[in-house]
Amino acid sequence: MVKRKRGFGQMNTLSLWAATANPPKARQSFEGEYDTDVVIIGAGFTGLSAAYHLQKKGLRTIVVEQETVGWGASGRNGGMILPGYKPTMDELAKKYGVDEAKQLNEIALDGMELVKEIVTTHHIECSLDYGGYLLLSNKKRFKSLLKDEHESLNSQFGSDTRYLEGDELKQEISSSFFSYGLVDPHGYSFHPLNYSLGLADAAESLGARIFEKTKAVAIQRTPQNVTVLTEKGRVTAKEVIAATDGYSSHLTKELDRAVIPIASYQVATECLGEELAESLILNNRMVFDTSNLINYFRRSPDGRIVYGGSGIRHNGCEKYYRELHQMMLSVFPQLTPYKVEYTWGGLIGVTMDMFPMIGRMKDGVYYATGYCGHGASLATLMGQLLAQWIAGEERVSRRFESLPLKAFPFSSQKSMLINLANCYYRLMDAIG
């Protein structure tokens, strides 16, 4: 075997997705005065989807983005399009009843199909792959829980999951770290930044205008309209959408108090070669575990292993990337000779209900938030629902609109809350 530099080499501070993205279109920053029907703050999945669907309905949109298209969680996530929500379907059935839980399950699946439809219609090159997902645990107490979830998903929600252990599990993953698993064929992997860039192009092809490096600094409302002030201009519209999720700020105080930004960090190995990469995750599943601070991993389109962890505090540094690397080696000791080439992180939005919601704040600003790590398809779906709401159309469900924004206690001390939660969940995972 050729000797390689172990562990961390010269790390690239770009995300893997930014380093391997399709060439982005050059977009101007906002200057001057414009008027439109709807102004959207944020060019991630939510904002771009809202622009796309509003334009399809004949409503003019302008999107202002503080950084660049897909700069936030939309372009830096793990690239996993999963069914369901942060709460399990059983938990939703207990909360809302079985019939509504079934409807919510179908809506989530529709969101996945919506992504597929947009990608197909607009020929977006984002490495969309239908490998499904694998949920794993190495704790015996989760054996019965995984079996119960498998049976419930199949009998009540029409899924086609399989419970795995022993040789069946080895046919999915070359790791002795996990003992129990559940595999679901529903689920896609994709290149998230390329999808963001393609969705932006699709919205613009319908007439949307997207401005990058444009920070919204104030929102002013009159009885007739709303004006979003930027650093170098203003845009006047009938309605405004805050599509900022985990990057919400004092600009939308009500939303900012109700969303806690949780950091999620990822590492990516150097290219492993097709044979090794395919031997580790045999069927190209997206993989995550049952820990409170979820670990997730997958093969990348160019033959790497991408390994991520959720719930880590804000101030990410090399310590956390090294921790992720050690976790990855615990799962795949085969990767010991290979170095980590990319490290990156970002913020996801978490709400009190741990459930996605759309709404309209007291100042009339529309919003969508609370994807809790499931935003790859849900954010695209919420953008569509916001467009339907603003256009006065009927929505398939009002559940997402029925949940009020709830301010977190001590929301002005978010760093303290995050650190406390981080310590608590790490302790819970440690004692198992």
Report what the structure shows.
Helix content is 35%, strand content 25%. The protein is an alpha/beta fold and 432 residues long. A hairpin with a 4-residue loop joins strand 11 (216-221) and strand 12 (226-230). Helix 4 packs across helix 5 and helix 5 (98-121) packs across helix 12 (375-390).
How would you describe this structure in keywords?
about 425 residues; alpha/beta; nine-stranded mixed sheet; six-stranded mixed sheet; 21 strands; globular; disordered N terminus
Topology:
Layout: E1 7-12, H1 16-19, E2 32-35, E3 38-41, H2 45-56, E4 61-64, H3 73-76, E5 80-81, H4 89-96, H5 98-121, E6 133-137, H6 141-157, E7 162-165, H7 167-170, E8 180-184, E9 188-189, H8 192-205, E10 209-211, E11 216-221, E12 226-230, E13 233-237, E14 239-242, H9 253-258, E15 260-269, H10 274-280, E16 286-289, E17 295-299, E18 305-312, H11 318-331, E19 339-350, E20 357-360, E21 366-369, H12 375-390, H13 399-402, H14 414-431
Parallel strand pairs: 1-19, 2-13, 3-4, 3-14, 4-10, 6-16, 14-21
Antiparallel strand pairs: 5-9, 6-8, 7-8, 11-12, 12-13, 15-18, 15-19, 16-17, 17-18, 20-21
Helix pairs in contact: 2-8, 2-12, 4-5, 5-12
Radius of gyration: 21 Å
Determine the N-to-C terminus distance. Answer: 38 Å
What structural category arises from helix and sheet content?
A: alpha/beta
Instruction: Count helical runs.
Output: 14
- Please, what is the average pLDDT? 90
Helicity level? 25-40%
The portion of residues forming beta strands comes to 15-25%
The tally of strands reads 21
- Give start-end ranges of low-pLDDT stretches: 1-5
The strand order across the widest sheet is 1-19-15-18-17-16-6-8-7
Global outline: globular
Main beta-sheet strand count, sense and barrel state: 9 strands, mixed
